[in-house]
TrEMBL record:
The chain crosses the membrane at residues 108-130, 142-162, 174-201, 221-240, 292-312, 324-348, 360-380, 392-422. This is Chromate transporter. It is found in: Cell membrane. It comes from Kribbella shirazensis. One of its GO terms (cellular component) is plasma membrane.
Length: 423
């Protein structure tokens, strides 16, 4: 199969090839990746340096970079990936970045997308753990400005996605009900329940709409590799605690604690906090003040919140610690997200083209819009807009993003400086 590309968009041959019946299509890599590993790494690295505001804001930064600016994938495909990554446990924004890297540059592209997005904050937090010791959580005035700019970034993403994914009465209603459910039932399982129910509603009620799966996407991962990832994911969940008990190794204990924390998180990076606290503080590996200081620093740097694991690994009292401890904890806490991404994508690429699956995805995507709208209110708005000046900064940032089309990293810098000036 030949894939041709003009100006960053697929030709009609791509769509025809993607929809042609192939009995063995899911059993082998189905496309030639359209980009290079280096390209993916550099773009993800820039996002890793500039994506402040937490996992919900990351979705907005990713959409602006990958969908609006570079057009590596269309809005519908992006929304489908967001729904998949929100549904699975682990680091949602990191799974999304890896998925886009895989689609762009193959399986190795997913690994380098993760490296680019993760390394900047991981390095910063490791250095902080080694040099700063205990730092007060409220000592970084820049943090408030970054929270304020997150309001504008998320608002821009919600507005853009709502126009594309909830443009009619049924889907707008699903989005509104999803927002209400998430806000009124703020439990960890709430978002997953909303996604499932939205999918069921879409499956039953939205089949009459025209097919809107977007351009056909071929996932360059064979099914056998996806199955191997699922086996590894479950095997490590079962085997690591047994090996930890049998060998009594501190390295195994750290890897096991970080791996289970990363595997059992639903709802984003902030939810990993109590899991890590229960693993690290009672054991005496880090003190409570040290733990809270690191969490404050993790919110002040760009990139995924899961890089907090690197801080904890570096700050541990017993060995392994330092750079080795940071590396072990960092790999372990992200490994479940990697295995889930590589395990789920081979089926996602096929299922999203089926009429029933398309109908369910219409409902799920509308539900995702509602979830993002709920997140815009809580925690993004409620934690950032505390004074009239905060609203003014957020409004100016939104204007710069939507009307003046300023690059997000410039808006982030300006809002961060503004936050320090008015603090």
């Amino acid at each position: 199969m030949t894939i041709r590309q003009r100006n960053g968009t697929s030709t009609s041959d791509d769509v025809e090839a993607s929809t042609a019946p192939e009995t063995s299509a899911a059993e082998q890599p189905e496309s030639v990746p359209r980009g290079s590993v280096l390209e993916v790494f550099l773009v993800a690295g820039r996002l890793g340096l500039t994506s402040f505001g937490g996992p919900i804001a990351h979705l907005a930064y990713f959409r602006d970079e990958y969908v609006v600016k570079r057009r590596w994938l269309d809005e519908k495909s992006y929304a489908d990936l967001v729904a998949l990554c929100q549904f699975l446990p682990g680091a949602a924004s990191s799974k999304l970045g890896m998925s886009i890297g895989i689609l762009r540059a193959g399986p190795v592209g997913g690994l380098f997308a993760w490296l680019g997005f993760t390394l900047p904050s991981a390095i910063a937090l490791t250095i902080a753990a080694l040099t700063l010791g205990s730092v007060g959580v409220d000592t970084v005035d820049l943090l408030h400005g970054l929270k304020v700019v997150a309001v504008a970034v998320v608002a821009q993403a919600v507005w853009g996605m709502a126009r594309n994914l909830a443009p009619d009465r049924p889907r707008a209603t699903i989005a509104a009900l999803s927002t209400a459910a998430v806000l009124l039932l703020p439990v960890q399982i709430g978002q997953i329940t909303v996604i499932v129910l939205a999918g069921l509603v879409g499956w039953r009620l939205l089949r009459s709409q025209g097919a809107d799966a977007g351009p056909g996407l071929r996932v360059p991962i064979p099914r056998w590799f996806g199955i191997a990832c699922w086996v590894a994911l479950i095997g490590l969940l079962i085997g690591l605690p047994l090996a930890r008990t049998a060998f009594g190794s501190q390295t195994l204990a750290l890897f096991d604690s970080a791996y289970r924390s990363g595997a059992l998180v639903f709802g984003g990076g902030h939810v990993v906090l109590p899991l890590l606290q229960a693993e690290m503080v009672p054991t005496g590996w880090v003190g409570q003040d040290q733990f809270l200081a690191g969490y404050g620093l993790a919110q002040a740097v760009p990139g995924p919140l899961f890089t907090f694991g690197a801080y904890l690994g570096a700050a541990m009292g017993p060995a392994p610690h330092g750079v080795i401890g940071a590396t072990i904890a960092l790999v372990a806490i992200f490994l479940p997200s990697m295995l889930l991404t590589y395990g789920a994508l081979p089926w996602w690429g096929v299922l999203r083209t089926r009429p029933a699956a398309q109908a369910a995805l219409r409902g799920i995507n509308a539900g995702v819009v509602g979830i993002l709208l709920a997140a815009l209110y809580n925690p993004v708005w409620t934690s950032a807009i505390l004074r009239p000046i905060d609203f003014v900064i957020a409004m100016c940032a939104f204007l710069l993003l939507t009307v003046w089309r300023c690059p997000p990293w410039i808006v982030v810098l300006l809002a961060g400086v503004a936050g320090m000036v008015v603090a």
